[in-house]
Amino acid sequence: MKSTTRPARILHLHSTFDLGGKEARAVRLMNHFGQAAQHTILTAVPDALGARAAIAPGIRADFPNNAPSLAGKPNLARYRKFADYFANFDLILSYNWGAMDGVMARTIFNSITPLPPVIHHEDGFNEDEAVKLKAKRNWFRMVALARTDALVVPSHTLEQIALKVWKQPDSRVRRISNGIDVAAYAKRPQKGAIPGFQRRDGEIVIGTLAGLRAVKNLPRLVRAVAALDRPVRLVIVGEGPERAAIEAEAARLGIADRLLMPGFLKNPARYVGLFDIFALSSDSEQQPISVMEAMAAGLPVAAPMVGDVAHMVAPDNAILLGEPGSEAGLIDNLRRLAEDPALRTALGNANRAKAEAEFDERLMLERYAALYGRAMGRPEFGR
Q1: Average of per-residue pLDDT values in the chain
Q2: Would the pTM count as exceeding 0.85?
């Protein structure tokens, strides 16, 4: 039964809104909530809006240019502006370190002026914390998160960080696994779904989906592909500030003609199945949605053991994962998969079965809707 209450006014605080894992999930939830909510998205990088194209027609989503900026140094005057702005909403959803100033503003001023609930989502770290978390940031997080209604993490790794490093109580931390529409990836991929892509005879296609950020270390993947001694094409779907560096590395290694970078593409279920191998080269991950998508499409995964990746893939595939930061390990695993079609098929089938069993999005959507609804005092929200 549809609710007769007005749509919930939800404010989203992002460092950027280029399409990556957390943005893809946020958009999927926005689309799922439909007319039950209207959304306002603030980003510290106003031009980084690649995920906007994935918002479904009819979903009300505003990107104001007169709101307080998430970019800037911490100070009370700036936080006061946030607090005044927050009062216009029913729920605040913040994402990762780039939104932490907004979380701190609400923590400071909520005791003075009642403000809407805030739920913080932590999905991982950029290159400056890929190896080691910064002590000052850990302190800031611990203080800022102290009055949030919930802290949501997708992975076991992040759950332990939240509990042990940021000293958050069990009652605040919620681990909600990411999820996807697994059934959509079982369909045959569409041949023309990747602009400029046409499979060449005898060619192995290695693909990845990623925001083009330094923490993804995509030049490492370019070097790994260049080291393979067989016809291989590399397809990198995504957009971001590291595009030029990736293209430059391919040119330096003489494989620019084997690299295709079509930019951001909607609906990965249409094209992920065009790859033979899915590859990940990140310095840091948690529970990457792109790995779930590859698994659902029946692909083997070559990746380092970062975040929860080793627990995500099928056990036989996990054996092939390399050590974090090991370029040689990535090369070896790509070579083994490229040379053995039977192995690719076996691992792909095992990954698909595990995705069907563990990563269907229905449970994720239900859990987020229930969490947001409880925070707003709207138990019927999203149902």
Answers
A1: 94
A2: no
